[in-house]
Specification:
Elements lengths: L1 H15 L1 H24 L9 H26 L6 H31 L4 H33 L5 H21 L4
Helix pairs in contact: 1-2, 2-3, 2-6, 3-4, 4-5, 5-6
C-alpha cells in the first residue's frame, strides 16, 4: 500500500534527517498555502497565478522548518511541575516567544526576498504585524494544545504544518495584500 510505504519512508526520514525533512515538508506545505491563497482568497484563475510568489513564500519553509524542529525539541525539555503546569508552560512559551518571532521573521523574509527596502519592511510590519499576531492568538493555542498533548515529538512539525496550510494561505494573503 502506497500510504503505508510513504508513512514508513517519512518516519525513517524524520529520524535520520530531521532538519532536512522538516525543512522540505514545511517548504512544500507553505507553497501549497500560498497557492490556496491565490486561488481561493484572492480568487485568481490558474493563468493569473504568481508562481514566483508561491516559490518565494515556500522558500521561507526551508528556513522556518528546521527552526520549528529545534523549537519543539526545546519545548519538549520543559518538564518541571505538574503535567498540567508543564503543558501550560509549553503553550505560553510557544505563543509568547515563538509566535511573535516567527510572524516577524516570515514577514521580513518575504519582504527581503521581494527586494523591499528597510523602510518598506518597517511599514509592512507596522501595518500587518499586530493583526497577524492577534489572529494567531485566535487560532494556534488550541491547535498547540492538541499538538503538545497527543502528537509525538518527531511528528509535531508535520502536524503543525499540515494544519498550517490554511494558516499559510491566510498569512500569504495578508503578507502579499497591499504590498508596500
Amino acid at each position: 500500500m502506497l500510504p503505508t510505504r510513504l508513512f514508513r519512508f517519512y518516519n525513517k526520514s524524520v529520524h535520520q534527517w530531521p532538519y532536512v525533512t522538516q525543512s522540505l515538508q514545511t517548504a512544500l506545505l507553505m507553497t501549497v498555502g500560498d497557492i490556496i491563497s491565490q486561488l481561493i482568497a484572492e480568487k485568481k484563475y490558474y493563468s493569473q497565478m504568481n508562481f514566483n510568489r508561491s516559490i518565494k513564500f515556500g522558500s521561507t519553509g526551508l528556513v522556518i522548518g528546521p527552526i520549528l524542529c529545534k523549537w519543539y525539541h526545546i519545548l519538549d525539555k520543559v518538564n518541571n511541575g505538574s503535567l498540567k503546569l508543564t503543558f501550560i508552560k509549553k503553550i505560553a512559551l510557544d505563543q509568547l516567544i515563538f509566535a511573535p518571532f516567527a510572524i516577524a521573521f516570515i514577514t521580513i523574509f518575504i519582504a527581503f526576498i521581494d527586494g523591499k527596502t528597510k523602510n518598506e519592511i518597517e511599514i509592512k510590519l507596522k501595518r500587518d504585524y499586530v493583526d497577524i499576531l492577534c489572529t494567531n492568538y485566535k487560532v494556534w493555542p488550541i491547535i498547540q494544545c492538541i499538538n503538545f498533548s497527543m502528537v509525538p515529538l518527531h511528528h509535531r512539525v508535520l502536524v503543525t504544518q499540515s494544519i498550517a496550510v490554511v494558516w499559510n494561505a491566510y498569512l500569504s494573503w495578508k503578507i502579499n495584500s497591499n504590498k508596500t
